[in-house]
Every structure is written in structure tokens, then in C-alpha cells.
């Protein structure tokens, strides 16, 4: 039930804080591990293309779980959902901290991903149900701050911890905060009635096949190049599984996630732009810490700290972009943000063959400001456009494809890095990094077309 006044109960504020904390931790650890990759390759004696599954597999699992979020929210009490997610996160966190080998570490990451997949969409549902309409932009901006700032802060956090302590301490440090989230969860009360509906396992299976096959297809490029049979086969399987998913969706009475929402043009183009932003954001946040360590021979501490100024400044400005949305409308902050974002990526592409830490710091500041300005506001505009009755499904699609976009972004970036040319690891990293920036720049350029149709008046 939407609040009619501009005031919020203390219990509702605590509920948002609890959800924001757990979502922040889930996304923070997601990218904090990026800085540890050179260390993990040596400790577990596995190549970078294998180690990156710590992030890719995590994002993939989060995507699959979030698909179920609309059904889970309608079927179970929000407090019980949240507590379940926190328990998965804590168990996975402990397994990762104690992992004796890489396969156990990966298992812990997947269990942890289940918790994040449960909690992350709940954050936006809690905000939408509790925030007054007049302040929706600000509160959604705070939610966007969580999912956009955390990936950027992750490498900084990870770099500091790895330099002074151990990569295992990433999990030990976040554990008390997860326990705090569990304690705060008791402030969550139920706002909407529950529904007893049948879950559509068949559709979930085919959508999971779509996600897994597409991720594996792009991941094959790192070893076999862009012209290989595994990529072609993966794309074919993806198309077939997606077609079957749509056919079943049009005839199934069971509940998973609504595809009729894609009849809304505003939602479609806003979602596409949102996915491209996430692919570029996560992909580049994967590349930069590894570039600093491999191409510039910097420490993990430096690799993390060079992203900190951009992360903090853009994060602090995120509520400002929300207020711009409330006062000026969606188009100005979104299109302006995409323009700044694109300029930053072009700048990165131009200097990528010889980037010093200070050059990365400056370009990343511009990059982070542009990304955060357009990211959360794009989602807010789309959720408002679909109407109250479709918000839960729209939210599920945004959160699902946001995480899947991150998985694809990591896989594509890893593939480009591995396919770079030159003599020595540094030269290969520089060449591959430039290819990453060119590819991501094309995606953000396409966003201008998407936003044109997003804001084009409808009859």
C-alpha cells in the first residue's frame, strides 16, 4: 500500500536500511574479488579465465534467483524472505573464508549468490511499497547508489584488504555486517497480501539455459577467439531456449515472471539501456584493477585506491541525481549522464595503451559520475511507466538482467583481455583493455538511440 503522506514510519526506514545493507554487501563482495584474481591464480594454480568464474558464476546465479523474485514476494512474507537470503549469504561467506581449494571457494560464492539474489530485488520492492511518491526518486536513487556504488567500491575494499591482510579477510570483515542485517530484518513487516500460486519450474529451467549458454558462449572466446564453434553453438542454444521460454510463457498459467510487460515500449528501451550500462560498468570495473597490477605493475592497494575518488564522489552525488529526477523529470539527468559516460569511455580507449594510475583515477571519476547519473534514474523511469500493477515484475526483470549483464560484461571483458596482442603480459593486457573500451563505447553509443525511443511521445 503506497503511503499517502511524505512521512515514513521509523520501522519502514529501518527496513530499507536493512535491505540496503545486505544488497550493498552482496554487490560489494562481487567486485572486491576482482582485485584478488592475480593472487588466486598463484595460490590455487588456475588461469585467469578460470578464476574469473568467481565473479561470472556469482552473477549468473544471482540472475537465476532474481527471476523468481516476483513469485517469491507474492508467495512468502517479506521478513521470512529476507532472513532466508541473509542466512544463505552468511553460510556462503563462511565457506569462502575457509575454502581450502578453488572448487570450494566457487561453491561458497554460488551459495552466497543465492542470498544476494533473494535480497537484492527485495530492496527495491521495499522502497516502492514504503516511500512516498513525492520522494520516490530520492529513495530509488539511494537504492541505485547501492547497486552502482558497491561495484566501484569493491575493488578498493578488496585491494586494501589483500594488501594488508589476506583475500580471506574480505569474507571475515563482512560477516559481522551480515549478522547486523539479520538483526535489522525483524523490523520488516508485511505491506501486501500473499498469493498462493503455482511456480513455473519449466520456464525457469529454460531461462537458466539461456543465461548459462550465453555466458559460456562468450566465455569460450578467451581460449578460442571470436570465431569458434562453441560460441556459435552457445548462441544457437540461447536462441532456441529463449524461443521455447516465450512459447511456454504465452500458454502457462503458472507463475514465474511476466513477459507481457515487454509490450510497453518505454520499458523495453529503458531496460536495454540499463543492461548496456551494467555490462560496461561491471566489465570495466573488472578490467581496471587487473590493468593496474599487470600492465602498470602496481600493488593491489594501488589498484583499489585509484578507483576510490570516483566511487565516493559519484556515490555522494547519487541522491542529487534522484532529486534532479524529481524536479526536472527523467530525460535531462539520464541523457546527460549517458553523454558523460560515453565521453569517459572514449577517453579510456584513447589512453588505454599507456595509462598511469593518475590517468585512470581522473578518467574513472568522469566515468563514475556519468554512470550513476543515468543508471538508477533509468530504472526509476521505467518502473513508473509500467504502472503500479506491473512494478514487481518490472523490478524483477531489471534486477535479473542487471546481474546477468554484469556476468556477460565480465565474460566479454575477460575474453578481450585474453585475446590481446603483444609481447609479454603487460602488452597483451594493454591491447585487450583497449578492445574492451571500444566495445563498451559502442554499447553506450547505442544507448542514445534507446533513450530516443524511451522518451519519444506515445499516441
TrEMBL record:
Major facilitator superfamily (MFS) profile domain span: 15-459
Cell location: Cell membrane
GO CC field: plasma membrane
Chain segments annotated as transmembrane: 12-33, 53-72, 81-104, 110-128, 140-164, 170-189, 201-221, 227-248, 269-288, 300-321, 333-353, 359-384, 396-416, 436-455
Domain of life: Bacteria
Keywords: Cell membrane, Membrane, Transmembrane, Transmembrane helix, Transport
Membrane topology: Multi-pass membrane protein
A single MF term (Gene Ontology): transmembrane transporter activity
NCBIfam families: efflux_EmrB
PANTHER family given in the database record: MAJOR FACILITATOR SUPERFAMILY MULTIDRUG TRANSPORTER MFSC
Family: Belongs to the major facilitator superfamily. EmrB family.
Protein name per Swiss-Prot or TrEMBL: Major facilitator superfamily (MFS) profile domain-containing protein
Organism per entry: Lentilactobacillus senioris DSM 24302 = JCM 17472
